[in-house]
Amino acid sequence: MRPSIVQGQIAAATEGAFGDVQFTRRTAGSTLFVNPLMAAYFTVDLAALAARCLYLDRLENTVGMRQVATRVEAFRNEIITRTPRVFPH
Description:
Structural class: mainly alpha
Number of domains: 2
Low-confidence stretches: none
Strand order of the largest sheet: 1-2
Order of helices and strands: HEEHHH
Helix content: 25-40%
Distance between the termini: 39 Å
Number of helices: 4
Strand content: under 5%
Shape: elongated
Largest sheet: 2 strands, antiparallel
């Protein structure tokens, strides 16, 4: 009876749509931004993702983004990272 705006955004992102996508009359006349990453945001298993994070324990007891960034940087300095590559467009 009443289409879900959130589910519609996820469906639009899954189909590859992005930007101001209108998929229901409920959003007519408004600007609705569909992020192409929404499909991943709403389908990721956060517990499984966190379990794979090799520096999660280092983030405990952090206060603020500066501390988080410093600890992530320290972790990255201890490992061998992949060479950055240009993302194909």
